Amino acid sequence: MSSTMQAQGNQGAEAPRAPMRAGALIAVLLAGAFVMILNETVMGVALPAVMREFEITAAAGQWLTTAYMLVMAVLIPMTGFLLQRFSPRAIFVAALLLFSVGTAAAAIAPWFSVLVVARIAQAAGTAIIMPLLTTTILTHVPAARRGRTMGLIAIVMSVAPALGPSFSGLMITAFGWRSVFLVVLPIAVAVLIAGSVLIRSGGAGSAVRFDLGSAALSVLAFGGIVFGLGSIGEAVGGHAILPPAVPIVVGLLALAAFVWRQLALQRRDAAFLDLRPFRSRPFWVGVVLLAVAMCSMFGALILLPLYMQNVLGLSALATGLVVLPGGLLMGLAAPVVGAIFDRVGARPLVIPGVLVVSASLAMLAFLGDDSPVWYLVVATLVLDLGLAMLMTPLMTSALGSLAPELYSHGSAIVSTMQQLAGAAGSAVFVTVMSLGAASAAAEGGSATAAAASGIHLAFVGAALASLVAVALAFLVPRRPSIEPAGGGERGESGESTSR
């Protein structure tokens, strides 16, 4: 795919327009990704209204989120194959069509089952767009300017989830839950039309064979792990469909078989998801630290609303407004961090960034049953500032260390690990909170005090676990050299990639 796009960008007649066209293309992809990721977080606030209209239980309503996460987990590992097999234009149109059709169906859904299917269609489109965006930036943007451009992805990944609850709360209060989808739909259609014009048809991609065995193992592995992790919280409350250990064990066994199959297939360049990026130390260190960052972010996004509503008694809209400043700060800081990365490299940003994240988790560990709202705002601001210092440098350093032919697979791996880390963070935080709350309640504490105790214990554990990330941060190279596709030990300049 990348060779086709580069050849198009290098045609003599088009050379003066190439940078402008690439910038417009990336802008359209960013707009599509923003709308899609915003859509991920709108259902939490909308769920009570949906439950009332369709007369369903909370357990049934949770499938709107669970099904979304499962589809994302299953499809993202396949994007490495899709980005090689099909043209960028075909992938973009398919992603936006799926998302637009799903959004329209959600807006008019007459039954709850239709709404679930609509959310699945939305998730399918979202799973494809992020790896496409990352690969496009790596292909079109010179290495010297990648930091500030990748910072735009960090804006999407931080501001969109932060705006989701506030946007949803305002729309539901004023116009009802269906208005959330009705507002998003015309934006998605406009992005689809603009992208169809800007992205050239190109070729049909390389003739990569679809490996059915790898696809089946991928579904079992990533679907099983995410489903199992997502059901841990329900199991603690006694509402799980089946013991979480069952899908997790099945998923881990399938993952081992999936990895073994990819290692065999990549010897003849036929891997469904090429794992050679892990031969680059900057890549695997970056992926691990990104996973820690995503665990912290999603865990905090789960626990803080529970704390604010169940302990402090704040409304859903007030909860969204409390976390909004942190998300906006993260979005504003991302391009600045990207520009600094282009000048100084990753390590000078990652080390202080992980220390800031660890300090913010320690701040959250001091939450009690009567903590002031301003303390929450400050703590989330510190957390999001630390995440902003981590995400852009880590993504750019990790993916920039790969040879161009591994961009699509590296992007798919990063997106998959972020999805798994988000599910793991949510599961671990909720489980520790539930166990801590149950223990406090058994000792005679009130419901409010027990909830506060459980949340305190979860953040204490997170703060202690973050010390591992602090140690790993010193392994991040300042400026990694490119790792050859064959996994050689030295980069193009002849310098070690572990520098």
Short descriptors:
mainly alpha; globular; 499 residues; disordered N terminus; disordered C terminus
N-to-C order of helices and strands: HHHHHHHHHHHHHHHHHHH
Q: What is the residue-mean pLDDT, rounded to a whole number?
A: 78
Nearest-angstrom radius of gyration?
A: 22 Å
Shape summary:
globular
Low-confidence stretches: 1-20, 487-499
Q: Count every beta strand, where a strand is a DSSP E run of 2 or more residues.
A: 0
Structural class: mainly alpha
- DSSP summary: helix tally: 19
Largest sheet: none
Helix content percent band: over 70%
Distance between the termini: 30 Å
Task: Indicate the proportion of strand residues.
Answer: under 5%
Oligomer: single chain
Q: What's the short story on this structure?
A:
With 499 residues, the protein is mainly alpha-helical.
Secondary-structure blueprint of this entry?
Layout: H1 2-9, H2 18-40, H3 43-54, H4 58-61, H5 63-75, H6 79-85, H7 88-108, H8 112-140, H9 146-175, H10 178-198, H11 212-230, H12 232-236, H13 245-265, H14 281-311, H15 316-344, H16 347-364, H17 373-400, H18 407-442, H19 447-473
Helix pairs in contact: 1-8, 2-8, 2-9, 2-10, 3-9, 5-8, 5-11, 6-18, 7-8, 7-10, 8-9, 8-18, 9-15, 9-17, 11-13, 11-18, 14-15, 14-17, 14-18, 14-19, 15-17, 16-17, 16-19, 17-18, 18-19
